[in-house]
Specification:
Helix content: 40-55%
Distance between the termini: 37 Å
Number of strands: 9
Number of domains: 2
Number of helices: 11
Oligomer: single chain
Shape: elongated
Radius of gyration: 22 Å
Strand order of the largest sheet: 4-5-7-6
Strand content: 15-25%
Largest sheet: 4 strands, mixed
C-alpha cells in the first residue's frame, strides 16, 4: 500500500505546483484552506475543493506545508516538540501513579526553556501540576517522601525561603483541559503549554521574563510546529487569551505567524 501511495503521489506532483505555491505565500505567513483554494484556482479556475483538499494532504505529507491549527498552514516542515524528561520526574511519576492511579497531573521542569534562552538560569523548578482538589494531598505526600517542595508559592515566599539546591519542587493546580502529552507513560507539557505558561506564570518563571521571553518565542517558532488553536484555547482556559494574543500581535517578530 505504501508503494502504491508514493507512486500516485509522484504522478500528481506536477499538479501540486509547488514552486508557484512557495512564491505565492510568504515564508512566515499563516494561511488557510480558502487561500490555498484561491491559489489553485488562479492557475486552474475550475479546480474543485475536494481536489484541493487532496493536494493539501499531499503537500503536508511531503513536507511542503505544515499544519499548525484547524485549517491553518505555514510553508515548510518543522519538528514536533518532545520535552526531555529528567529521571527525577519519572521517579515521581511512578510514585504518583501508584498512590493516585486516577489523578490528572502534568510533570515538567523550567529547565525546558533553556533550549531557547541566551542566559541560562542557575536554578530550576521541577513543577508538579495536579487537579486543584488534590494539590494539598500531593504536597504532603511529597513532604512525607522527603521532597523539598513548595505549594503554590508566592514571589515573597520564594525570595525568602527558596533553598540553595539547584532544583526545587513546586506543586500547583493543573488547569482543566491543559494541553499535555504522554511521554514514556508520563503526562508532561506540550510546546503550546510552555508558551502560555511562560506568559502567565511570571512568579515561577521570573528568570524567563523580559527579553528572554521574546527570545524564547522567537526560537520556538523557528524550530518547532506550534498549534495556534491549541495554544489560544489553553490561554483562554487560563483567562489570558486576550492579553496573550495582544502580546503576540504587538511583538513584531511573530505578527505574521499568529
Amino acid at each position: 500500500m505504501f508503494c502504491i501511495f508514493v507512486k500516485k503521489l509522484n504522478i500528481n506532483k506536477g499538479k501540486l505546483h509547488i514552486v508557484q505555491l512557495k512564491n505565492w505565500f510568504d515564508k512566515d505567513q499563516v494561511f488557510d484552506n480558502k487561500q490555498i483554494v484561491s491559489f489553485y484556482r488562479s492557475i486552474e479556475p475550475y479546480t474543485k475543493e475536494s481536489t484541493v483538499n487532496w493536494r493539501i494532504y499531499s503537500l503536508v505529507k511531503i513536507g511542503v506545508l505544515t499544519r499548525i491549527g484547524r485549517g491553518k498552514f505555514i510553508l515548510g516542515n518543522k519538528n514536533n516538540y518532545i520535552p526531555d524528561i529528567p529521571s527525577k520526574l519519572m521517579s515521581l511519576n511512578n510514585k504518583l501513579k501508584k498512590k493516585y492511579p486516577y489523578l490528572d497531573y502534568c510533570l515538567w521542569t523550567s529547565a525546558l526553556y533553556n533550549e531557547f534562552m541566551l542566559h541560562q538560569p542557575g536554578k530550576f523548578f521541577l513543577i508538579v501540576e495536579v487537579e486543584k482538589d488534590a494539590t494539598e494531598s500531593v504536597f504532603f505526600f511529597m513532604r512525607e517522601n522527603k521532597y523539598s517542595v513548595f505549594l503554590e508559592p508566592t514571589k515573597e515566599l520564594l525570595n525568602r525561603y527558596i533553598p540553595d539546591e539547584k532544583e526545587t519542587w513546586i506543586v500547583k493546580s493543573l488547569v482543566s483541559e491543559a494541553p499535555v502529552n504522554n511521554i514514556s507513560g508520563m503526562q508532561s507539557t506540550t510546546i503550546e503549554k510552555l508558551l502560555v505558561d511562560l506568559f502567565c506564570d511570571t512568579v515561577i518563571l521570573d528568570a524567563q521574563q523580559g527579553p528572554e521571553r521574546d527570545r524564547i518565542l522567537k526560537e520556538v517558532f523557528e524550530k518547532y510546529t506550534v498549534n495556534e488553536n491549541k495554544m489560544l484555547r489553553y490561554a483562554n482556559r487560563r483567562g489570558k487569551k486576550k492579553k496573550f494574543n495582544e502580546y503576540l500581535n504587538l511583538t513584531s517578530k511573530f505578527r505574521q505567524r499568529i
